[in-house]
# Entry
Amino acid sequence: MHTPATPRRYLRERALAEHLSVHRSTLRRWVARGLMPAPIRLGLRTVVWDAEEIEHWQAARAAAPRGQPE
# Structure
């Protein structure tokens, strides 16, 4: 029996920045420095992040020892 796949949820840049309480330029800086998952480009001007990947990244950050550089 085939179980239907759960559709992926995506976050646009503005929604992700609001969710993380940071400026959109901070997201870009973190991506450039390899500090967070890279976005997925869906079109010329459409950039999104996989919500599940962001949730895993946040959990890993929360579990990391404090005082460590990001």
In short: The chain is about 45% helix and 15% strand. The domain at 10-62 is CATH 1.10.1660 (Multidrug-efflux Transporter Regulator; Chain: A; Domain 2). The first helix runs from residue 13 to 20.
